[in-house]
Amino acid sequence: MGKAEIIVKAEKLVESTMKSNDASHDAAHAFRVRDLALSLAQEEGFADFPDMMLAVELAALLHDVEDYKYVRVPSESKIVENFLVKEGVDEDLKNKILSIIMGMGFKEEVSGCASSSQYPEFVVVQDADRLDAMGAIGIARCFTFGGSKNHCLHDPNIKPRSQLSKESYIDKNEQTTVNHFHEKLLKLKDLMKTKAGRQRAERRHKFMEDFLEEFYLEWEGHA
Q1: Is pLDDT larger for residue 113 or for residue 151?
Q2: 0.90 exceeded by the pTM?
């Protein structure tokens, strides 16, 4: 199967499986991550290696199809693998894509279980996903997700958690949307693994810092 054909099919899979998600983790998010990942891959010198570019594009497109926050039935945890097998993707490429997707989560890294993926494509896709959690888009996504879960916007009496395990990170029942900036989003800049990702993260990080400064001033009636 040609590259163009499988990409089109992957896009359709993303649209169909993520259509009921809230806008923080919808198909548009996957498409933005794909575009960012391809751009980072170009800057990191992957352009002359079409197999690497294909792995980057497919992993970026499919990375949230089985997001634990939205999986409704156990059968959904095999959607990506089943798709790759059905479309006749080479075994090595299939395993690479699945490995990249499996290791991308912040919850693993925050608990000291960061992926040791041997694939250079991994860091490009992970950085792209994290960039989409930062800056103006990241702010919009953060409040969209918090609203979808009916999380409290902000409560000065609920402090951000400094020591997070994988389990406590997943459990957000008593946390506020604004605390998510301190527990995750403001940490992403220092977790970028590519030079291109680190450069882009600086601007987005500063935008979030400026936003929070204004947010707290307005919350306290000082602006």
Answers
A1: 151
A2: yes
